[in-house]
Amino acid sequence: MSYSEARVIAGGLAHIPIVIGVFGFIQSFILKRIQAKPSVKTPEVPRTSIENPPKPSSPKQQGDPGSSNKTIKKPAHPNVPVNTYKPKTPFVGTVKENYSLLKDGAIGRVHHITFDLSNGDPLLEYVEGQSIGIIPAGEDAKGKPHKIRLYSIASTRHGDDYQGNTVSLCVRQLQYEKDGETIDGVCSTYLCDIKPGDKVKITGPVGKEMLLPEDEEANIIMLATGTGIAPMRAYLRKMFESSERKKNNWNFKGNAWLFMGAPKTENLLYDSDFEGYKAKYPDNLRYTKAISREQKNTKGGRMYIQDRVLEHAEEIFTLIENPKTHIYLCGLKGMEPGIDEAMAKAATSKGLDWSELRPQLKKAGRWHVETY
Known about the structure:
The chain is 28% helix and 22% strand. It has helices at residues 3-11, 16-36, 186-193, 229-240, 242-247, 271-280, 305-311, 313-320, 335-349, 354-363, and strands at 91-100, 110-116, 131-135, 149-152, 166-172, 175-178, 181-184, 199-206, 219-225, 256-262, 285-291, 325-331, 367-371.
């Protein structure tokens, strides 16, 4: 409406006939404008957008058809316990069991350690994907208490015995060379050496980065090396362990895909459990291994987890285009560049730009990384 038309309307408020006439003129004017207005075609959503992903072709992977043009919000995780026990007032747990996870011929030491939490007041509760802190016994070279080390939890909230009062860790003894001498990691050695009945100072739980989505139909891609398998073990137990499925008000119906990296077959952690889940739920779980000292990549070099990502690029990025898909990465920090490079190459093969795609996934709460 123009300024002169506005003045006519304002002046005519005192004269009802004039008002009626003006409204009739405006209505006629608007109808003519609408009829003359050209149709506007909705722009096509770019393929690099995760906020507005293209509709998947596979009905099995297809999400809510009406959600394709909606902004994907980062999932909220209400009622997640954090810092129930702090460094100045740690919980003193009791070692329930401690055993090696490796087969004969494996490299290094890796132990599964379970702590009894039953005498906690309050109980140290946690959810899958969180971590706890361990304060090693003794003092450092300066006579001060050792600093806290964080470890990813390897059990579900119900514990390995499903009673809800234990927590388990998967710990590799750290060893490195310095000035020609082998140095043992303080906390990792302490944990690998402790015995049932020993008391251990525990803090936490902490962390919300690695939590599972609430959606029972989510797709979960897991990339793990070594003890980075800890949170993945918790996820897979929650998804596929029969006792867990009975206890949880969460019945997983999506697709889970575990990529596991290890130097030797004997170093594959929890392998028989994962093979068992795959055999029982073949339509929901895939398990892909990268055994660096035994398998070769397409170039004839050692097979690493990033090589497996490249091998399955087409399928991985078809899943990533689905807004229900989450990716979890856990292990040594040195694995990140290789994974990032592999994802970039895989994205390029699909006509996507990984440098744009990854921040979108992160913002949407679908790219989860915990490395150390």
